[in-house]
Amino acid sequence: MKKIKVLHISEPFAAGVYNYIKDLCRFCDTEKDIESYVTYSGKREDTNKENFEHDFSPNTTLVEVDMEREISPINDFLAVYKIIKEIRRIKPDVIHLHSSKAGVLGRIAAKTYPEAKLYYTPHGYSFVREDISEFKKKLFWTIEKNTSRFFGGITIACGDTEYEFAKQIKHNSYLIRNGVDVNEIEKKEKNKRSKGFVIGTIGRISPQKNPYLFNQIALKFPEIEFIWVGDGENKNILTSKNIKVKGWIPREEVLDLINEFNIYIQTSSWEGLPFTIIEAMALKKPIIATNVIGNKDAVKHNYNGILCSNLKEFEKAILKVLEDSSFVEKMGVKSQMRAKKLFNKNSNFKELIKLYKN
Fold it and tell me: Of the candidates 306, 307, 297, 298, which has an alpha carbon nearest to the alpha carbon of residue 331?
C-alpha cells in the first residue's frame, strides 16, 4: 500500500498550534497509510523540545527550520529556501501549513512543488492581533489576500469566525473545528473538592491573555480564589492577593485543577480557538470570557457561558452566577453537550483525513 506523505509546516511550535499538530500526528498514526513529517521553527520561547520524544511517535519525522514571527526579508528568504529543500527531499502528497507566517512562506515554497495538495490553517489570523498597530493589521490582511490569490491553497479554518474571515478574503475554505478528546476528558470529571468559590484560567501570562484584566477582576472579588495555571513575562501584573499562580504543571494535574473551578474564565484580547476553553467545557464548566474571536466560537452567550466586553460586564457576570447556583449548573451541562457536538477531536480529524485522501 502506497503511503500518503503529509508535511506540516509551522512557525510557532508551542501552545495551541503545537497541541493541534501533535494530536493530528498521533491521530494519523492510527491511519496505516499516512506518514507524517513536521517542519517547525523552535524560536518561540514556549517551544519545549524535551517534550518531543513523548509527544510524537517514531512515525513522525521532525525537522527544524528557523522562521521569524515578524516580517524579516532576509530571514524569510532563507526560511523559504530551506522549506523548498525539505519539500523536494520529502516529496509530500499533502502540505499543511499552520499559522499566518508559515501560511505565507509555505505557500511560496510549495509553488515549486505543485504535485502536493496544499492546505492552510491560520490558528488565528495575524490581522486580529491586538498588540499591533492598525497599519500592521491592514498590511497583514493585504498579505493574506494576495498570498491566497497568487499562491493558492485551501484554507482549513479551525473556528467559525476564522472561517468567516477566510470567506471574506476569498479563500477556498472548509470549516473543521479544533477539538479535544471529549470522551477521554469526560472520564476525568469528578466532584469539586475545594470549599470556597474558585475561578480559574490556563495559559501563558502574556499580553494576548490580558493578565491586567484578570487582575482587575480579582481585585473586585477579594473573597473569591482566582487561579492562573501557567507562567510568562507578565507574571508581575498579577498582584491581587487572592490570585494563585500555579506555573506550568503536568496535564493530569491541570485537569484536576479545572475540576475544582466553579467557573473557567478567559480574559484574552484575541484568540484562535482555545483548547483550554474546550477542555473546561468537556469537564462541565461554565465559561466567562471576553467577546473576541475564538472565545465566542466556543461560548454561546447565556447558554454555556457569558461573553463580556469590559471589566464592568465581567463583574456583572460573576455576580449573576454567584446569585444563582442552578444557572451555573445548567450552563456546565450545556458546555459539555456543546463540546461533544462541535469540538470532538476524533470526529473532526476524520473529516480532515478525508480531505487529505480525497
Answer: 306
**Residue 325 to residue 313: CA distance in whole angstroms:** 19
Query: Hunting for cell 482587575 — which residue is that?
Result: 216
Q: Which residues pair with 301 in a beta bridge?
A: 305
Residues 6+ apart with CB under 8 A from 11: 41, 67, 68, 69, 98, 99, 101, 102, 105
| C-alpha dihedral (314, 320, 323, 325), degrees to nearest 10 | -100
DSSP 114-161: TTSEEEEE-SS-GGG-SSS-HHHHHHHHHHHHHHHHHH--EEEESSHH
Q: Are 270 and 208 in contact (CB under 8 A)?
A: yes
Q: Can you give the pTM of this predicted structure?
A: 0.87
Block means of pLDDT (10 residues each) for the chain, length 358 residues? 90 88 92 92 82 89 90 90 96 95 94 95 88 90 89 92 90 89 85 76 93 97 96 94 93 89 94 89 96 92 95 96 87 95 93 92
CA 27 to chain centre: 17
Which three cell numbers, joined as nine digits, stand for 115?
504535485
If phi > 0 it is left, if psi is from -120 to 50 it is alpha, else beta; for residue 247 that is left
Q: Report how far residue 50's alpha carbon sits from residue 162's, in angstroms, rounded to the nearest whole number.
A: 31
